[in-house]
Amino acid sequence: MSINTVRLGPGNVLPSKDGEDVLTPGYTADLELRIPATIRGPKRTENAKGRIWVTDHRVIFIADTLDTPGTSSSAANAPSEPPSYDAPPVLSSLEIPYASLKIATYNLPTFSANNVLITFVPVPGDTSLPDPGRGQTIEAKVVVGEGAGHGVWKRIEGERMRAEERRKEEDVLPAYEPRI
Q: DSSP secondary-structure letter at 68?
């Protein structure tokens, strides 16, 4: 799991890894990333508008404004001034591999837009997001445009289950063979 590591290729093409299949087109999306209080900093919320893709290995969000600080809560107070030395990076992209995804739910609230809530923990050793600590997670609330929220959630859940099955198959121990 990392932020600000994915960039669109020439012609706004999503870069994919070897053997990775992109399963959905880039739907418009509003992302709200909720990071709990950690040793590295206080609780914060980052907001961005962009596009979301689902592949067979990860969920990818790329903001529309990659190089301009804008809608993040930390940069919204002073958009014309450069960020302070201890300000968190502005959210320009988010990558969530299925191995770090804990739960994905589709919510139908009464007084707001339908959304997908993705709960995950950062990959160990990743320095772009803080380790939330034992028992805590990071949440990404995604409002998907074009009426595709339910379809995106079904794809995420289906691929998460397939990734879990692949991981279980890889963890199978070899059969015992006695030494002679």
A: S
Residues 122, 95, 74, 128, CA torsion sign: positive
| Separation CA 24–CA 21 (nearest Å) | 9
Q: What is the pTM of this model?
A: 0.77
How many angstroms separate the CA atoms of 103 and 118, rounded? 6
CA–CA gap between residue 154 and residue 83 (Å, rounded): 38
Per-residue pLDDT tens digits for 118-133: 999 988 777 778 888 8
Specify burial of residue 163 (Cβ count, 10 A radius: 0-12, 13-18, 19+).
middle
CA distance 87 to 38: 15
